Amino acid sequence: MFKSLYIMDENGLLLYSKNFMKHQYDENILIGFFTSIANFSREALGGVVKNLNLGQNNKLILLPNTEERLLCAAIVGDNDNEDLISRILKNVLQDFIDTYYWAGYTRRMDW
Questions:
Q1: What whole-number distance in Å separates Cα of residue 44 and Cα of residue 56?
Q2: How many angstroms separate the CA atoms of 23 and 62, rounded?
Q3: What is the mean pLDDT of each run of 10 residues along the chain (111 residues)?
Q4: What is d(CA 103, CA 68) in angstroms, rounded to the nearest whole number?
Q5: Who has the most CB within 10 Å: 5, 22, 71, 98?
């Protein structure tokens, strides 16, 4: 089950977010955490970490789009199927790119 969804650029500028739970997360802290993980793993390991167990039945799924220099992140349930979530994120990110994103566009989208 999706708990929250985020789309950001590689510098950590939040372009879109959606929270599906009553509990609100501090987006500034989360976005910094997501981009730090992605940038560190890219530099140190040669690729972006795809998932991370956050504890308390929470898992982070990261999906980069290197062409557009975007990162999609989702907090999901610990037992959710990572392959299915990754496919959904890929589709969501591509729809976002097709609909709202072009080079140099930096305004956050609030739907």
A1: 28
A2: 21
A3: 91 91 83 88 85 92 90 94 95 91 52 41
A4: 8
A5: 71
Task: Give the other-Cβ count within 10 Å of 47's Cβ.
Answer: 10
Both tokens assigned to 20: 């599906």
In SS3 terms, the chain reads as CEEEEEEEECCCCEEEEEECCCCCCCHHHHHHHHHHHHHHHHHHHCCCCCEEEEECCEEEEEEEECCCCEEEEEEEECCCCHHHHHHHHHHHHHHHHHHHCCCCCCCCCCC
Going edge to edge, which strands form the sheet with 58-65? 14-19, 2-9, 70-77, 58-65, 51-55
Could you tell me the pTM of the whole model?
A: 0.83
- 51-87 per-residue burial string, b: 16 or more CB within 10 A, e: under 16: bbeeeeeebbbbbbbeebebbbbbbbeeebeeeebbe
Residue pair 51/62 in contact (Cβ under 8 Å)? The answer is yes
